[in-house]
Design brief:
homodimer, 457 residues, Aminopeptidase, Alpha-Beta Plaits, 2 domains, 4-stranded antiparallel sheet, 18 strands, globular, Cyt/Met_Dipeptidase (chains A, B), metal-binding (chains A, B), Peptidase_M20 (chains A, B), Peptidase_M20_dimer (chains A, B), M20/M25/M40 family metallo-hydrolase (chains A, B)
Chain lengths: 457, 457
C-alpha cells in the first residue's frame, strides 16, 4: 500500500470532500439546548450513513442523551480508535454573525480561503479530516491499513453526561491500542502540534437569592439586600490583586513544569503581545508571576462564563431582583481534583454570604487534567509524519482546553490518546463567525493519511 | 355642595368604577419597550375619552415620545392640578406571574379582595381614584368643586424624557395653585399618608469591554481579561463593609433629619423586622449605623438593577465574553446633585479598570430629591380629610421612591405638590403579580372626594 496515490486522490477529491462537510455543517446539532434534540439525531444519522458509504459498519447507539455513533473496520496491525464530536456550541449572540451559522460557505479572506459556519473548526471539520483520509485510503487501496474503531459523541459541548456510562458499558468494544483525537489546533499558522497536556475542568452554576420576590428599589432600596451586590462580592473575591485564585487549597496538585519542557516551550517563540493584541488586549490577566504560555497551558484558571439578574432589557427598570446567577468554570492542571475543588468553591461562596441570603448550586462538568505518554514510539512516528506535511517541524505542546475524553480513555479503557488537530487561534471556537481554514481541512486530511501510513508501515 | 351624597354615590358605583379601571388595565402600555408604542397611544386615547365623558375638556398632546393627556375644567376657588401616569413597568419575568398581567381580575386573598394585574397600583388604579371621585362629584352636584387641570403622562417608567420640555412649553397652561399626585402609598395597612420628602435618582448603564470578540475560555482563559471579572470588582467596590457607598463625594448634600421629624417617624412604630420578613430577609442591608426607616426614606442608596454578560441560556458554554453590562441607580436625598454624582460615578468606574479594558456609559434618568412645603395650611386640611376616611390618623411621611415630577413642578412651574396615595407595601410594584387592594381603590376614591371637599369648603 502506497501513500502517494492516496495523497493525490485527496487533492483531486477536495471539492467533493468539502461539499460532504457542508452537508454535516447544515445540521444545527447544538447539544446544550433541548430545542435541537432532533438535529443531534439527524447529525448522528448522517455520520452513520457516511461511514457506511466507505464500507465501515457503523451504528447509532441510544443513550439517555444524544446518541453515540460507533463504527468498526477490521484489519491487521495496530488497532486505532478515532474520536470526534458531532455536536456544536450555541450560536448566540446571533446578531454578531455575518451569515447564518448553519448556512456554511467558503469565503475568501486576506489570509486565504476559509469554511465559515458553526462547527467548522469545533469539531465537524476536524472530525471529517480523518473520515476523508480513510475514504481516500479505501478508494485507492481497496481496504483500510489497519483495524479502526470510529467513536463519535454528540454531547461534548454540554458536559458529556452519557459518555462515561457508555464507555463503561462498551469497554470491550471500544478498547484499542491508542485513541486518535482530532479536536485541537496547530501551533501558530504552520507548526503542526501533538498536544501532550490537557487541562481538566470543574464547572458550576450559582443562584443567589435575596428577597423572596422582585422588589421596587424605591420602596426597598437600601434596606433589602440586593443579590447582585452579593454575587459581585463573591465573584470579585475569586481572584486576588495578583491574579491568583483564592478558593482555599485550589493550587493543591498543581505541578511546576519540568525545566526541559519549559525550555522547549520557550523555543516555540510564543508572542503573548501578538496573541493578546489579536483580540484587542495587551496585559496578561492571570497570575502576574507567570508567563503567558504558562497561563494558557499549565496554570489553572477561573472564569465567569455567564452572569445575569434583574432587568436586562431596553430602557431602565428600578427593580431590586430576588435572584442573581452566574456560570463559573475552573480549568485544572496536574493532579487537581475537580470534586474537591467543587466542594471548596461552594464552601468559599457560602462563607461570603450575609446570613439571610441563600445560594443554590447546579453541577455541570468535572474532569481531571491529562498528561500523555509521549515515550511510546508511535508519538515520534506521528510527529515525523506531520512534519512531512507542514512547512515547519511538528511540536509537542500543552493545551489550555479541556478534552475530558482523553482522561476517560485512560481511566476507563486504560488507553492512551494522541491529540492531533489543525485548528488555528483565530478560528473563533464558541464565538460568532467560527471558521476553519480550507487549508486546515485539506492538509488535515493529508496529515491523517500520512499518520495512518506511519503508524502501520 | 354636600359631601355625603358624593360618598354614597361612590359606594353604589364601585362595581362600574372597577370595570372602567379594568378596561384601562387591559391596555399593555409599557413605556420603556418600543414594541408597546401603539398601546401607549391607546391608553392615552382611553383617558381622553373617559375625561370627556365626565364633561372635562381633554386632549392627547403629541411629544417626541409617548403622548401627554391634558384636561381642564373651569370653576371657582383654588386651582388644582392632578397628575398621574398611564404607562406601566415591563412584566418580565413573565413565568413568575400567576395570570396574564394584562388580563386583570378581582381575586379573593387572605387579606381581602385585590385587583391583580400590571399597573393596578402603579399607577392606573391610583390615577383612577381621583378621576372616579370627580365623576361622582359631577354626577351628584352637576359640576366640579373648583378649577381642575388633569395632567397624565406616559413615560414615567422610562425616565420621562418628554416631560420637562413639555412643561416648559406649556407652563402657563399647567400652572395651578398646587399639584395633587397619586403615586404613593399608605403607611402600613391603615394609616393614610402625605409624603413630604422624595428621593431623587441618577441611573446609568455601563458596558465593560475586554477582548474584541467572545473567546473560548480553553484557549484564552487565564491570559485574557474577562469583563465579567472586571464588572464584579467594580460593583463590589460600590459599597464598603459597613454598607456605605464609596463613590467619592457621594454624601455631599445629604442632610441629617431634624430631631422633631425623627421623633415623629419613631412614633410611627416602623417594624423593620416585619418589613424585611415579609420578603424573606432579616438584616437591614444599608449603612449599619442607620435605622431601617432612615435607609428607605432619608438615606441615599445604590442598587444594581440589572446585570448580564456571557452565556445565560440552558446548559453551559465555556465562553470568555467580550462584554459585560449593568444597570445601576442611585436614590438621592437632600441637596445631592445627580449630575455631579453621575460624573463622580463614571470616574470611579473608569479608575478601577485595567489599562486595556474599556467602559462605555449610557445615560438614563437624573432628578433631585424634593421636600414639600407642609407649612401651607392646605396640607393640614388634606391630612384631616384623610383621617376622616381611614381607621387611623393620617401621617406626614418620607418616601424612598423617586417621583421626579414633584421636583419639576417646583422648579419649572414654581408649584408645590401634595403626594397622597393608597398603595400598600405588598402591592408588588414593578414585580410579578402586582395588585391593588379593592379597598385602596374604594377608600381612595372616597378619600379624594373628602380632600376635594376640604380644600374647597
Amino acid at each position: 500500500m502506497s501513500l502517494d496515490p492516496v495523497l493525490a486522490h485527496i487533492d483531486s477529491d477536495l471539492s467533493a470532500a468539502t461539499e460532504r462537510l457542508m452537508e454535516l455543517l447544515r445540521i444545527p446539532s447544538i447539544s446544550t439546548d433541548p430545542a435541537y434534540k432532533g438535529d443531534c439525531q439527524t447529525a448522528a444519522d448522517w455520520l452513520v450513513a457516511d461511514l457506511n458509504s466507505i464500507g465501515i459498519k457503523a451504528e447509532k447507539r441510544v443513550t439517555p442523551g444524544h446518541p453515540m455513533v460507533v463504527g468498526h473496520v477490521e484489519g491487521e496491525g495496530p488497532h486505532l480508535l478515532f474520536y470526534g464530536h458531532y455536536d456544536v456550541q450555541p450560536v448566540d449572540p446571533l446578531n454578531l454573525w455575518d451569515r447564518d451559522p448553519f448556512d456554511p460557505a467558503i469565503e475568501d479572506t486576506a489570509k486565504g480561503k476559509v469554511i465559515r459556519g458553526r462547527g467548522t473548526a469545533d469539531d465537524k471539520g476536524q472530525l471529517m479530516t480523518f473520515v476523508e483520509a480513510c475514504r481516500a485510503w479505501k478508494k485507492v487501496n481497496g481496504t483500510l491499513p489497519c483495524k479502526i474503531t470510529f467513536f463519535f459523541e454528540g454531547e461534548e459541548e454540554s458536559g458529556s453526561p452519557s459518555l462515561v456510562p457508555f464507555m463503561k458499558d462498551h469497554a470491550e468494544e471500544l478498547k484499542a491500542d491508542i485513541a486518535l483525537i482530532c479536536d485541537t489546533g496547530l501551533f501558530g499558522e504552520e507548526t503542526p502540534a501533538i498536544v501532550t497536556t490537557l487541562r481538566g475542568m470543574m464547572s458550576d452554576e450559582i443562584t443567589i437569592t435575596g428577597p423572596t420576590r422582585d422588589l421596587h428599589s424605591g420602596m426597598y432600596g437600601g434596606i433589602a439586600m440586593n443579590p447582585i451586590r452579593v454575587l459581585s462580592k463573591v465573584l470579585a473575591a475569586l481572584h486576588d490583586d495578583e491574579g491568583r485564585i483564592t478558593v482555599p487549597d485550589f493550587y493543591e496538585g498543581v505541578p511546576e513544569i519540568a525545566p526541559e519542557i519549559m525550555a522547549q516551550w520557550e523555543a516555540l517563540g510564543f508572542d503573548e503581545t501578538a496573541f493578546l493584541g489579536e483580540v484587542g488586549l495587551s496585559k496578561p490577566a492571570g497570575e502576574q508571576d507567570r508567563s503567558g504560555l504558562e497561563m494558557i497551558w499549565s496554570r489553572p484558571t477561573c472564569e465567569v462564563n455567564g452572569i445575569w439578574g434583574g432587568y436586562t432589557g431596553t430602557g431602565f427598570k428600578t427593580v431590586l431582583p430576588s435572584e442573581a446567577h452566574a456560570k463559573i468554570s475552573f480549568r485544572l492542571v496536574g493532579q487537581q481534583d475537580p470534586h474537591k475543588i467543587r466542594e471548596n468553591f461552594r464552601k468559599f461562596v457560602s462563607d461570603l454570604l450575609p446570613e439571610d441570603v441563600k445560594v443554590t448550586f447546579k453541577t455541570h462538568g468535572a474532569s481531571f487534567a491529562s498528561q500523555m505518554e509521549t515515550s511510546d514510539p508511535i508519538f515520534e512516528k506521528a510527529r515525523l509524519a506531520l512534519s512531512d506535511e507542514w512547512p515547519r517541524e511538528a511540536a509537542y505542546v500543552g493545551s489550555g482546553g479541556s478534552i475530558p475524553i482523553a482522561g476517560h480513555f485512560k481511566k476507563i479503557l486504560d488507553m492512551d490518546s494522541m491529540l492531533i488537530g489543525f485548528g488555528k487561534d483565530d478560528d473563533g471556537l464558541h464565538s460568532p463567525n467560527e471558521k476553519y481554514d480550507l487549508n486546515s481541512f485539506h492538509s488535515g486530511i493529508r496529515s491523517w493519511a500520512r499518520v495512518l501510513d506511519a503508524l502501520t508501515r
